[in-house]
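Researcher: For the annotation table, I need structure tokens for Ribonuclease Z. Please keep the output clean. Sequence:
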Amino acid sequence: MSNRELVVLGTASQAPTRARNHNGYLLRWDGVGFLFDPGEGTQRQMIRAGVSSHDIDHICISHFHGDHCLGLPGVLQRLSLDRMPRPVHAHFPAAGTEFFRRLHRASAFDEVAEVRERPVERGGTVFTGAFGALEAVPLDHRIETFGYRLVEPDGRRMLPDRLARFGVRGPDVGRLQRAGSLRVGARTVSLEEVSEPRPGQRFAFVMDTRLCDGVFELAAGADVLVIESTFLEQDARLADEYRHLTAAQAARVAAECGVRCLVLTHFSQRYPDPRRFRDEAAEVFDGQLVVAEDLVRVPVPPRR
């Protein structure tokens, strides 16, 4: 199993269908779990996908339209039912704080889990941890909406042949990584001599917006971009009116921003054939393309 993968829990937009649940996306990232936009039915979709409440460390809400948040009460109550042993951080637009609290207290339950509210005011870095930084960027929808990006810091890749040449082995490799240099015999070996730069990976999540600077900012250099494509280009005027994206627009963003894996989702029920989204996006984007389906798993591509 990949240490970094996206588990898709739901892919519908305003109305679910027989084949598509409301939104829900769990990103597993080296043992840290990020649950994005838990729509109605997320708790059951988690069970179907083999996802535990204990897999969740962060909940990220893009905005407070129902298809992106009505599963929140069940998820929060399940954390307590399962006696989650560590705090869960909830990120959401500050303008929707009252909605979050109403959803949190939608019914009576014995709250055992600790849920820490982290309302997002203007964007920027909203949390840092061993995984890197979680960032939020404003989008252009009918109510306050944020996209999210996970940014791993740049590091260095150790080169076995150079380590062997300089006689660095075993626990000394870790000591060299931590200290930046290491005395080996009669000389000091620097980290730069036995390694090369390793760009950090990026994951971006873009929901419910029309094209704006924030979309491109989030997508820049993303290894995985999960992005709404509610409409097809034939309905571009309707997409703009409701402040959504088309599949062609989402693909254009991916192509211009150097995205490696494009995941299209949040499909309107008006289009019964998902192949049309793939065909439209493939005309613009020639990278890895996933037209998301409920319960699929999308591994984060290996490092470049």
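Researcher: And a one-line annotation?
Model: The chain has two domains: 4-154+199-299, 159-195.
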